[in-house]
């Protein structure tokens, strides 16, 4: 993680980015664009969950609460106060971060992983029930619709850019920009001293503390940052689809998909969550007819990966072609 | 609201709480011995409900045959699942996370397998006993009284098992110090398996008792699991007596809370109670620091 990027790695990253930038030129098919936008939203969510679970070692199972808070928060502010989604998605992120700090404070000061798992799960359930029950505000199970879209603008050289259901390409580039931004933040963080302290905390809390890492502050910082990123992903999702239901935005199914994606890609790696999000989304789309077996497949996949490939897909290469050990 | 109705609600809360206690004590038993948080525990409840439904309604067995059979089936299933999954994960380095993730995966597999096999219909079982017990102004169906009596008997039996049998001694030794238990010749791995089976059996028993009152469907285990988690947090994670008291307490708090608000807020009340307890006494109401 702290080695300088090799030329190979740099070329690889540049290649993937170039391919992503050029994809709409090859096919602007709305269906392909839609699938890619969802992949990137889930990829951002998965990366942020991996940040707390894979890098900081805080095993939370309730991150869908922050997705839902960001989504509903941003949508409700945009609808009721008439503010622009360009502004409210950041508010959605802040709402999620505030909730993350609120729920993180009691659980992160005690060093018990089961408590973290249980309380985050319970908190997500509280959020889901509140969203479903407060139907005067959120329209409950009926679904919140009529969420404002991003306003269009005019780019020099490109011309007018608009964000309507027909213009998937502009959403694609916006999602790509967000994904790159989130990745930059995560990579910068993980390659900094703070990132080193975080990994030390994950691998040995007592040792890290004795070397001067403030565990509680570090955990709260990571938890808040992760909730913020997930909140923004949720807010983007809200303004992209323009309709939210408690099940789609705060359902536990969402969290299960994210966990499956991260485990398939590789927990505790930078590229794993994105690879996992891409692989699983493609798999789901390829097997549309088997929709009824989707969750069954996710569940089985989680069990199989955990038992037989605990480090995920991105470490497969090293498994089959081990690099010579560095001296 | 008059006093009789209020007391009736408290009694109903205690009865629901006795079932929460069975669920919570299963989670506590597994966590107490092998430090595994079992996210698939709710599915043993759900499967126990289906076993009871098929044995009583489809096969027409009397309830006093069907319920022990359902519980036995769950016991065997629990042991088999432990043997096939947790057994391998628990010896690995990263077991604390992988066991949670694996049981989460298992829970989803079991839910969706139940959905495919049994369908999404809500099944229910007829009352095992009819009639209503009348005590002054308070009226309680005998069915509910029976639930409470069975719960108390089960708790008594489990306490006896843990205190006075060789198996119980092994379980308690393992939960106190796994390495020391191994040194004195306790087959720790077998204890793990049996504890997992016992927990599944306790979950299935709760489902069998509640089957006439609440419908059985593939997702019936999810709310039950979350309730069980609240119970173990209240009582202190891994404590068997804590889970019993925590369960009863949760039942009463919910009953009072629902009287004050409405039933759709029931789960919010219990989860908020859990978070309040974590703020105030993270080691549980009855656990030690």
The biggest sheet of chain A, with number of strands, parallel, antiparallel or mixed sense and barrel status, is: 2 strands, antiparallel
Portion of residues in helices of chain B? over 70%
Number of domains of chain B: 1
Shape-level CATH architecture of chain B: Orthogonal Bundle
What is the ordering of alpha helices and beta strands of chain B?
Answer: HHHHEEHHHHHHH
Helix and strand content put the structural class of chain B at mainly alpha
Radius of gyration of chain B, CA atoms, in whole angstroms: 19 Å
Shape of chain B: globular
The residue-averaged pLDDT of chain B reads 86
Largest interface: A-B, 39 and 43 residues
* Structural Rg of chain A: 20 Å
Query: Would you give the CATH topology of chain B?
Result: ABC transporter involved in vitamin B12 uptake, BtuC
Overall structural class of chain A, as computed from helix and strand content, comes to mainly alpha
Low-confidence stretches of chain A: none
Which spans of chain B have pLDDT < 50 for at least 5 consecutive residues?
none
> Within the largest sheet of chain B, what's the order of strands?
1-2
Count up the helices of chain A: 15
Q: Report strand % of chain B.
A: under 5%
| DSSP, total strands of chain B | 2
The quaternary organization reads as heterodimer
Task: Kindly describe this structure.
The complex is a heterodimer of chains A (327) and B (289). With 327 residues, chain A is mainly alpha-helical. Chain A has helices at residues 7-26, 30-55, 64-81, 85-108, 113-133, 135-138, 168-190, 193-203, 205-210, 215-241, 246-250, 252-265, 272-286, 294-308, 316-320; strands spanning 144-145, 153-155, 159-161, 243-244. Chain A has a domain at 31-250. In chain A, the strands form two sheets. In chain A, strands 1-4 form a two-stranded antiparallel sheet. In chain A, strand 2 (153-155) and strand 3 form a beta hairpin. In chain A, helix 2 (30-55) runs antiparallel to helix 10, helix 4 packs antiparallel against helix 10 (215-241) and helix 12 (252-265) packs across helix 13. Chain A starts with 6 loop residues before the first helix and ends in a 7-residue tail after the last helix. In chain A, 43% of the residues are buried. Chain B has one domain (3-280): ABC transporter involved in vitamin B12 uptake, BtuC (Orthogonal Bundle). Chain B is 74% helix and 3% strand. Chain B has helices spanning 3-34, 41-58, 63-89, 95-118, 142-164, 166-176, 178-183, 188-210, 221-235, 240-260, 266-280, and strands at 132-135, 138-141. Chain B has a two-stranded antiparallel ribbon with strand order 1-2. In chain B, helix 2 packs parallel to helix 4 and helix 9 (221-235) packs across helix 10. The N and C termini of chain B lie far apart (41 Å). The chains are: A mainly alpha (327), B mainly alpha (289). At the A-B interface, helix 4, helix 5, helix 12 and helix 14 of A face helix 3, helix 4, helix 9 and helix 11 of B.
């Amino acid at each position: 993680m702290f080695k300088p990027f090799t030329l190979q790695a740099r070329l690889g990253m540049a290649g993937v980015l170039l391919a992503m930038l050029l994809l709409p030129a090859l096919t602007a098919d709305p269906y392909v664009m839609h699938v890619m936008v969802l992949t990137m939203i889930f990829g951002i969510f998965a990366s942020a969950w991996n940040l707390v679970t894979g890098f900081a070692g805080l095993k939370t199972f309730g991150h869908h609460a922050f997705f839902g808070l960001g989504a509903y928060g941003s949508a409700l502010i945009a609808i009721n106060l008439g503010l622009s989604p360009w502004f409210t998605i950041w508010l959605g992120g802040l709402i999620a971060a505030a909730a993350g700090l609120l729920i993180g404070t009691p659980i992160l000061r005690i060093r018990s992983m089961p408590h973290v798992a249980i309380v985050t799960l319970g908190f997500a359930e509280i959020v889901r029930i509140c969203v479903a029950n407060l139907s005067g505000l959120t329209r409950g199970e009926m679904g919140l619709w009529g969420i404002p879209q991003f306003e269009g603008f005019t780019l020099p050289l490109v011309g007018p850019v608009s964000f309507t259901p027909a213009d998937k390409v502009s959403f694609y580039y916006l999602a790509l920009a967000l994904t790159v931004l989130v990745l930059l933040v995560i990579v910068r963080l993980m390659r900094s001293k703070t990132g080193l302290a975080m990994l030390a905390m994950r691998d040995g809390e007592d040792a890290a503390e004795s070397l001067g890492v403030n565990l509680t502050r570090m955990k709260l910082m990571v938890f808040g940052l992760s909730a913020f990123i997930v909140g923004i992903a949720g807010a983007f999702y809200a303004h992209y689809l323009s309709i939210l239901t408690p099940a789609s935005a705060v359902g536990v199914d969402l969290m299960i998909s994210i966990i499956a994606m991260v485990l398939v890609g590789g927990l505790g790696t930078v590229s794993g969550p994105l690879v996992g999000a891409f692989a699983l989304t493609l798999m789901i789309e390829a097997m549309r007819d088997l929709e009824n077996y989707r969750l069954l497949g996710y569940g089985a996949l989680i069990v199989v990966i955990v038992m037989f490939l605990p480090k995920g897909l991105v470490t497969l290469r090293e498994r089959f072609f081990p690099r010579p050990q560095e001296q | 609201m008059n006093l009789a109705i209020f007391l009736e609600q408290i009694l109903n809360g205690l009865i629901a709480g006795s079932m929460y206690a069975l669920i919570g004590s299963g989670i506590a038993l597994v966590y107490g011995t092998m430090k595994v948080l079992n996210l698939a525990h709710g599915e043993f409840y759900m499967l126990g409900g289906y076993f009871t439904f098929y044995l009583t309604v489809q096969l027409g067995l009397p309830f006093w045959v069907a319920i022990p059979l359902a519980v036995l089936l769950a016991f065997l299933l629990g042991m088999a699942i432990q043997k096939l999954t947790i057994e391998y994960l628990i010896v690995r380095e990263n077991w604390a996370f992988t066991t949670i993730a694996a049981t989460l995966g298992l829970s989803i597999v079991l839910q969706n397998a139940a959905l495919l096999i049994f369908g999404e219909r809500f099944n229910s079982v007829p009352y095992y006993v009819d009639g209503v017990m009348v005590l002054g102004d308070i009226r309680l169906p005998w069915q509910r009284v029976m639930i409470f009596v069975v719960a108390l008997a089960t708790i008594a039996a489990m306490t006896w098992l843990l205190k006075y049998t060789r198996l119980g001694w092994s379980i308690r030794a393992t939960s106190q110090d796994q390495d020391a238990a191994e040194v004195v010749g306790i087959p720790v791995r077998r204890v793990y398996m049996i504890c997992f089976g016992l927990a599944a059996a306790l979950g299935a028993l709760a489902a069998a008792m509640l089957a006439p009152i609440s419908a059985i469907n593939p997702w019936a285990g999810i709310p039950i699991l979350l309730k069980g988690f609240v119970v173990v947090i209240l009582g202190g994670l891994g404590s068997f007596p804590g889970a019993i008291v925590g369960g009863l307490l949760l039942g009463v708090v919910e009953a009072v809370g629902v009287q004050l608000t409405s039933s759709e807020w029931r789960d919010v009340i219990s989860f908020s109670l859990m978070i309040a307890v974590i703020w105030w006494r993270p080691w549980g109401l009855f656990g030690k620091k």
